[in-house]
Amino acid sequence: FPLFSQVTCNCFTISNGEMQDVGVGLYPSMSLLNHSCDPNCVIVFEGYQLLLRSVREIQIGEELTISYIESLMPTSERQKQLMRQYCFECDCLLCQNREKDAEKLAGEEHAWKEVKDAVNEVRYPRSKEEWEQVLARCQNLLSSNVGHLPDTNIYQLKMLDWAMDACINLESWEEALYYGSRTLASYRLYYPGFHPLRAVQLMRVGKLQYNQDMFPQALETLKQAYDIMKVTHGTDHSLMQALMEMKEQCEAIMRTQ
């Protein structure tokens, strides 16, 4: 039990290029980093290699911090998860001010609670039929909540993400772009500055625009992703290399038009 507790408190979730969870790993030196809901560093992975990247200027003597959890959650949910898994209460400025909690839970409560339950029930689909079921559920809820939930509501945002993923897996590219485009304003609101999740989302939307021959829009979106990813991932990261290649291809096409 002590060993299990140590692993639970000190492991890192390993993610792939699109920031999807693929496993867990122990990185002893990185386990020394303390938590902040508004950290000055982020962790990204290159395969199983963990990379610690600063996302803003750090003063001499300033402590390096990372977020142990998904910062998108409202303050009360973040506090519950931190206490449950790590046995401490966060007192960072973000938690003290309860910043953006109102936007995160905007809309009619009965509507977002229904969407929250639906999102929590989704398990990653393993077949086309399961993806079709997820998409149908998302479409039904998104349609029924028009006027009741803004896209800034975090559960509505997660529903849009699932709808986008479902459309991509079902090769419904135009619809995937529609849902992805709706997420960008909320990603900008909740992941300001340099954040890897926003960079990846911009890259995904830019790729959809590129594949639908929307080259001016794709180039603008990919440039935004590039500006963030050069900080969060670095120019040597494989995802950054793929982004630069797509951006260069888009620029070459536009020069010939």
Explained architecture:
By secondary structure, this protein is mainly α. It is built from eleven helices and six strands. Helix 5 (109-121) packs across helix 7 (154-169). The radius of gyration is 19 Å and the shape is globular. The chain starts with a helix and ends with a helix. The mean pLDDT is 92.
Features:
257 residues, Beta-clip-like, Serine Threonine Protein Phosphatase 5, Tetratricopeptide repeat, 11 helices, 6 strands, 11% strand, S-adenosyl-L-methionine, methyltransferase, EC 2.1.1.354, H3K4_H4K5_MeTrfase, transferase
Number of strands: 6
Structural class determined from secondary elements: mainly alpha
First CA to last CA: what distance? 64 Å
- The CATH architecture assignment of the largest domain turns out to be Beta Complex
Beta fraction of the residues?
Answer: 5-15%
Task: Quickly count the domains.
Answer: 3
Characterize the main sheet. Answer: 2 strands, antiparallel
Q: Average pLDDT, to the nearest integer?
A: 92
Radius of gyration: 19 Å
Low-confidence segments: none
| CATH third-level topology of the largest domain | Beta-clip-like
In the CATH scheme, the class of the largest domain would be: Mainly Beta
The name of the CATH superfamily of the largest domain reads SET domain
The main sheet orders its strands as: 1-2
GO cellular component, one term: nucleus
GO molecular function: histone H3K4 trimethyltransferase activity
EC number: 2.1.1.354
Protein name: [histone H3]-lysine(4) N-trimethyltransferase
